[in-house]
Design a protein that fits this description.
Layout (H helix, E strand, L loop, with lengths): L1 H16 L8 E2 L3 E5 L6 E8 L3 E6 L8 E6 L7 E12 L5 E10 L6
Length: 112
């Protein structure tokens, strides 16, 4: 069992070495709804965040360049709605994707 845990830790450390961002990332685990056009939102989860964007784990295989409104859970009574662009998407296990979204602007609450 320890060898398997060590392997997972090595994968996480290797990911840190390939970091390309200029802004520091902050661990940020919250529910996120991804709203594309007028489709119903799809539940996903944030992984980390910087001032420029957010990493989200989703089961959607989205095309890079997709524009969406991300509704991010807040500890205040109102969630935060941000218009974002999908900058990259990497497989993250069977039928899961780690995605990187760039913040574009604040957005009104989506209507579906």
């Amino acid at each position: 069992m320890n060898a398997e845990v060590d392997r997972l830790i090595m994968e996480a450390q290797r990911a840190k070495l390939t970091e390309r961002r200029t802004e520091p990332r902050h661990p940020f685990t919250r529910p996120v709804n991804i709203h594309i056009q007028r489709e119903p939102g799809v539940l996903a989860f944030a992984k980390d965040m910087s001032k420029q964007g957010i990493g989200v784990i989703t089961n959607l295989d989205l095309k890079v360049g997709t524009i969406a409104v991300l509704t991010i859970h807040s500890t205040s009574p109102r969630p935060v709605h941000l218009r974002c662009e999908l900058r990259w998407s990497d497989p993250f296990g069977k039928d899961w994707y780690l995605t990187g979204w760039k913040f574009i602007s604040a957005a009104p609450a989506p209507t579906t």
